[in-house]
Design brief:
This protein is mainly α and 79 residues long. The mean pLDDT is 87. It is 72% helix and 0% strand.
């Protein structure tokens, strides 16, 4: 058997790690959207259930990904 060493430039490694976190946060936010629309759970509880330790960080990421804050998303679903 042969073993090969793959060397990544620091920029490439950073790009891969950043892409992974974008993917993970996208999945978390998608689940949060489902919970915001489908339940009446408090937004803070939804943030914790989706893996966010701080609700303000959750709100910031939610807005960054969806373009709306969680409260507005819930209000929109109720209309």
């Amino acid at each position: 058997m042969f073993c090969y060493t793959i060397t990544l430039a620091p920029i490439s490694f950073l790009h891969i790690v950043t892409s992974i976190w974008k993917y993970i946060n996208g999945i978390r936010i998608a689940k949060a959207e489902e919970l915001l629309i489908g339940t009446d759970m408090p937004i803070t509880d939804i943030a914790y259930m989706c893996g966010f330790s701080y609700s303000n960080y959750f709100a910031r990421k939610f807005k960054q990904i969806t373009g709306e804050n969680p409260r507005d998303e819930r209000k929109k679903a109720l209309v």
